[in-house]
Amino acid sequence: MTPVPAISPHIAVGVAAGVATITMVNPAHRNALTSSMLRQLTSSVRELAQDGAVSVLVLTGEGDFCAGMDLSEWPRADQDERYGEEFTAAEEVLAAFPKPTIAAIDGYCLGGGAQLAIACDLRVAAEGSRIAITPAKIGLVYPASSVDRLVRAVGPAVARYLLFTAEFVDAATGLRMGLVSEVVMAGELTSRTRRLADTVATRSPISLLAAKQMIDAAACGGVGPGLAEYWATAPNIDLAEGVAAFRDRRSPRFTTRS
């Protein structure tokens, strides 16, 4: 029997019809991220943020979503500052992505994998998925920015439960907690995520950018007068196209992508 070649851990990127898909590939370790993968992920997200052809970003894994950090690469991870810094850098650049982001979660979504998923705007999970935030199991201190983002997503009570217990929650429980946005049947994750991304990609880029910025601001204490005034007075060529499409009873053809 011909041996199956091992798959080198890597990040795969594809763009089709305005939707960019980043896939974490390390199936031997449930897509746990190596240092190289983290650097690839961070650079890929930064490049896609500047790509005018991209309207939506989908983050997913090859099989499982992501089991966090690849501990096999860092046998003394507790003494290596890179361990958390590279993951936090990837999380922050994903959270700062200027266009809508969707995490497509299947299988295991653990530790740092959950960090990345929570950094996305929307999280779609397949039935049978298992999510856990696990720093308390190995003695790590969860990054302050990640705690802040988690509390804004699910509230302090649920954040305490997730961080104190480090226990798994299934997709249905995650939905009730607000940890995920939608649960789909097993086998339908890819198609449902693509339909959702395609729908978002047809919406006004100006409306989406404004909504994303103001939602983030509201979650951090309120939309300040400067941001509110900016969006109240900024030129908006999408509005003319949207109104014209409504009057003509056709789908709008928005062209602003930057």
**Oligomer status:** single chain
- Helix share of residues? 40-55%
CATH superfamily of the largest domain: 2-enoyl-CoA Hydratase, Chain A, domain 1
Radius of gyration: 19 Å
Total individual domains: 2
CATH-defined fold name of the largest domain: 2-enoyl-CoA Hydratase, Chain A, domain 1
Report the top-level CATH class of the largest domain.
Alpha Beta
Which second-level CATH architecture of the largest domain applies? Answer: Alpha-Beta Complex
The chain-level mean pLDDT equals: 89
Tell me the series of helices and strands, N- to C-terminal.
Answer: EEHEHEEHEEHHHEHEHHHH
Shape type: globular
| SS elements, strand count | 9
In whole angstroms, the N-to-C terminal distance is 51 Å
Report the total helices. Answer: 11
Task: Characterise this structure.
By secondary structure, this protein is an alpha/beta fold. The chain folds into 2 domains: 10-201, 2-enoyl-CoA Hydratase, Chain A, domain 1, CATH 3.90.226.10; 205-248, no CATH class. 46% of the residues lie in helices and 16% in strands. The chain has 11 helices and 9 strands. Strands 1-2-3-4-6-9 form a 6-stranded mixed β-sheet, with helices on both faces. Helix 2 (82-95) links the parallel strand 3 and strand 4 (101-105). Helix 1 runs parallel beside helix 2 (82-95), helix 2 (82-95) runs parallel beside helix 3 and helix 5 (144-154) packs across helix 6. The longest helix has 15 residues, at 35-49. The protein is globular.
